[in-house]
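Researcher: Please translate sequence to structure tokens.
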Amino acid sequence: MEQLEIQQTASTPLVSFDDSGKTLRIVGESYPENSFAFYTPVLAWLGRYLQQHAQLTVDITVTYMNSSSIKCMLDLLDALEEAFKKGSNVAIIWRHDLENPRSFELAEEFCEEVTFPFDIVALSA
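Model: Translation complete:
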């Protein structure tokens, strides 16, 4: 399986896959000029990965997402939900800053969209 590594910028998150831990990390802020162009390779990689592997944890620490990034995240959740319904062991860990209530609210909204394990974890100060 090819690796996935997209470096973080001021407007895009780090996207990194750790094969040993079967963990896809998404860290930073997400407000690219074209969210669909940014997330299309991530979603394509995810689709290929889930066809070949039955385990993945997505570890997310995103402090801000614009509306088009939220749509892309919903697409990611849909792919994970489909894999879960087919028997894959998928989960999300959403880390949020206690001083950023919007990140927590967004995690709660996303959590309601899925049936697979979705943990919302406060970042320690």
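Researcher: Any highlights?
Model: The chain has three helices and six strands.
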